[in-house]
Amino acid sequence: MPENDYLSTREAAIALGISLGTVQKMVETGVLEAWKTEGGHRRIPSAAIRERLAQRQGGKTNSTTLDVLVAEDNPMNRKLLEFALAPLGVTIASAENGLQAVTAASDGAAMFDLILMDVRMPEMDGIAATRRIREIEAEQGRPRCPIVAFTGNAFNEDRQQCLDAGMDDFLTKPVDFSELDRILRTWLPAASAPAAAVAPAVAQAA
Q: How many Å separate Cα 147 from the centre of its chain?
């Protein structure tokens, strides 16, 4: 099974907003599907977690297709953001560094409704990536896509640097799901399901 198709029990607990012990009990009783690696570690298919998140949302999805780019080099943070977005029925694209984010955003076929941009990434940081995306929008006459900084830096000067680069809002690390809910309601008004219902847990900053 490909690496991106499963979660560890700890990651599943964070995504579902329940204790690790509860997840382990669900696995032991067969409530939650899981399989073992050669090292004896349990792995839970991502699809099973998405299904439970959808059930928690009452099966609500939005008929309007929304496209979100998650640019984050930390796998745990990336997974948490993706799972928070999954119940909204959005199409999610991922980038592991700034160069990938610019490439995805400049693709002629891609028109994102929102970009969640990690500030510190390899190859090209989020500040430089945002500047380049804004240049591409101007060059190609594209509408301005909301870009939200995803950062562990909460100082005013850091926020100002993000604004100066062309970012529109801020989401701090560790992930605060109530704040993510505010971000989504502000910049994706067509998506009505609350992200805060996914989990009150956090991921460590990269």
A: 13
